[in-house]
């Protein structure tokens, strides 16, 4: 009868909880810098013009239906997703076609789960190294399938810069063949990415230790506005580790196509370029099919169709690229406005990191106490660790936000 009475309560998700508190807040002036979702200049969710065009095209197609997708996903989508990450020339140059496995996933989280489940099944003893700090869900996703996680140094709060030497040392110190989860671009929560030169050193050290890289790519296009630039680290990793180790890429279309709730993603596994790996490819792929079949049977199809339609139509693809520039440049403008207002207000401290960081977030350096006061006194909501989603700023609230920050910092 009382079988579940001793079940412990699982604390509400901190970020989703911020959103709920924001919704309930009845103050006229309120600002949501919590969850990482793009907002337009009126603070509203934005349906990308390319998505609108794609939906019209989809619904005008008399053969459109809601049938099940194959277990591995919608082929047009998974192939297109692979080309977004690697592009046709790179695929040819690196002979990827017979050693790349691309399966559809329930957005980026689902891709990470698939990779984690696969690793826990076939390489159960390997430790998973996560950046310190990282996206709050990483640890739980890997530990949820009984993998052991550890961290590598990443962010130095004193200097607001990369702890590069310590990061490299952690790669050297980790047991040979460990798994390193690397943010492909627009690191969450810090907004700080290694430079191209630093990426080369990172990948080189990883290569020397035969580590496995798992790239988490949730913001391709958001760091620079360009898909190609933002795929730099992934392509470098795949190229350099070609004869060394497999590379996983967990790809989300939540942010760059605005498909948040539609759950569109892809899990890629690039096998090393050896005859035996190429021979094993289909068996490896079949194990992904097993995981998918037992857990979700098949993936959601609507968002994947929207994305595939954008990717197969050059006009829609061009519109999508423009949409990404629209989003990344509005965020960049807001970074500059926030920094400039803080400078104008003579807010104590240096605020240049806000414009130097990239992607959707700024790791502001505000303390948990300041964040709490921002919420209580000014209805400005952000994550407790001081991470602000810059997409939540706009022409109407950026000055108000700067004044609120000024007040809590003094
Ligand atoms: N990885 C990182 C670093 C993220 O920030 C997010 C979302 O915030 C994800 C993965 C996964 O997002 P989704 O499952 O919505 O694609």
Automatic annotation (TrEMBL):
A single cellular component GO annotation: cytosol
Protein's UniProt keywords contain Lyase: no
Record key words, sorted: Aminotransferase, Pyridoxal phosphate, Transferase
The keyword Nucleotide-binding appears for this protein: no
Oligomeric form and interacting partners: Homodimer.
Note: In eukaryotes there are cytoplasmic, mitochondrial and chloroplastic isozymes.
Protein name in the entry: Aspartate aminotransferase
């Amino acid at each position: 009868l009382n079988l579940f009475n001793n079940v412990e309560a699982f604390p509400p998700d901190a970020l989703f909880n911020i959103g709920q508190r924001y919704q309930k807040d009845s103050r006229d002036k309120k600002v949501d810098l919590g969850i990482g979702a793009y907002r337009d200049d009126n603070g509203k969710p934005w349906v990308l013009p390319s998505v609108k065009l794609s939906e019209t095209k989809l619904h005008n197609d008399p053969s459109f239906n809601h049938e099940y997708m194959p277990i591995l996903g919608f082929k047009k989508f998974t192939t297109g997703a692979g080309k977004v990450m690697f592009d046709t020339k790179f695929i040819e140059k690196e002979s990827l076609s017979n050693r790349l496995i691309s399966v559809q996933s329930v957005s980026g989280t689902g891709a990470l789960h698939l990779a984690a489940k696969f690793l826990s099944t076939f390489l159960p003893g390997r430790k998973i190294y996560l950046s310190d700090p990282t996206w709050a869900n990483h640890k739980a996703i890997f530990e949820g399938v009984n993998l052991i996680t550890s961290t590598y140094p990443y962010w130095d709060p004193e200097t607001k810069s990369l702890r590069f030497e310590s990061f490299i040392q952690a790669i050297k110190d980790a047991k040979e063949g460990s798994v390193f989860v690397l943010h492909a671009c627009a690191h969450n929560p810090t907004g700080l990415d290694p430079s191209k030169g630093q990426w080369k050193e990172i990948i080189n050290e990883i290569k020397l230790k035969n580590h496995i890289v798992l790239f988490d790519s949730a913001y391709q296009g958001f760091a620079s506005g360009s898909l190609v630039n933002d795929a730099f680290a992934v392509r470098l990793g795949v190229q350099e580790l070609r004869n060394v180790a497999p590379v996983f890429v967990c790809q989300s279309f939540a942010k760059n196509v605005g498909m948040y709730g539609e759950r569109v993603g892809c899990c890629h596994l690039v096998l090393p370029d050896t005859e035996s790996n190429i021979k094993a490819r289909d068996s490896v792929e079949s194990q992904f099919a097993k995981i998918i079949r037992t857990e979700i049977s098949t993936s959601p199809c609507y968002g994947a169709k929207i994305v595939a339609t954008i990717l197969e139509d050059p006009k829609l693809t061009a519109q999508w690229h423009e949409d990404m520039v629209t989003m990344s440049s509005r965020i960049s403008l807001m970074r500059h406005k926030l920094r400039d207002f803080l400078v104008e207000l003579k807010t104590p401290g240096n605020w240049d990191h806000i414009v130097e960081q990239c992607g959707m977030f700024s790791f502001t350096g505000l303390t948990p106490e300041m964040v709490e006061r921002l919420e209580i006194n000014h209805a400005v909501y952000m994550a407790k660790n001081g991470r602000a989603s810059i997409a939540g700023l706009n022409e109407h609230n950026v000055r108000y936000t700067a004044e609120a920050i000024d007040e809590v910092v003094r």
